């Protein structure tokens, strides 16, 4: 069964940086896209960044220029480098993966807290 595990969250001051990691395991099917989502208290879950197997990336407007998504296909790991963090980036961040399969399927991580506060 596909499993995604996030790490690297925590408390950081405004203007600081954090690097989230997501490790995928438990499935022999290939991943064709991975992404980060976040959900703040009282708000809907939103897409933050996404990367497909060819390397194409896209970002939410709110994080463009501050966040960078990357992926190590050999390790089945994905990262989110978050710079110039703002209090409004505070949320639970979730790792997501789309797998090739029969049929295709998706998996979610359990989520990790990121808090930006002075």
Question: What does this protein structure show overall?
Answer:
The chain has 118 residues and is mostly beta strands. The protein has strands at residues 3-7, 10-12, 18-25, 31-39, 46-52, 57-59, 67-72, 77-82, 91-99, 105-108, 112-116. Strands 2, 4, 5, 6, 9, 10 and 11 form a seven-stranded mixed β-sheet that branches. The mean pLDDT is 94.
Distance between the termini: 40 Å
Average pLDDT over all residues: 94
Helix content: under 10%
Radius of gyration: 14 Å
Short structural description:
This protein is mostly beta strands and 118 residues long.
Observed structural traits:
globular; 118 residues; 0% helix; 55% strand; mainly beta; four-stranded antiparallel β-sheet
Topology:
Elements: E1 3-7, E2 10-12, E3 18-25, E4 31-39, E5 46-52, E6 57-59, E7 67-72, E8 77-82, E9 91-99, E10 105-108, E11 112-116
């Amino acid at each position: 069964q596909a499993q995604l595990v996030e790490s690297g969250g925590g408390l950081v001051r405004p203007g600081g940086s954090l690097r989230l990691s997501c490790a995928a395991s438990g499935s022999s099917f290939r991943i064709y896209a991975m992404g980060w989502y976040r959900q703040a208290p009282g708000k809907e879950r939103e897409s933050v960044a996404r990367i497909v197997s060819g390397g194409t990336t896209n970002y939410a407007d709110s994080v463009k220029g501050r966040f960078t998504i990357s992926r190590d296909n050999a390790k089945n790991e994905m990262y989110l480098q978050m710079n110039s963090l703002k209090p409004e980036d505070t949320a639970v961040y979730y790792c997501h993966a789309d797998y090739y399969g029969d049929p295709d399927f998706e998996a979610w991580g359990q989520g990790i807290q990121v808090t930006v506060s002075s």
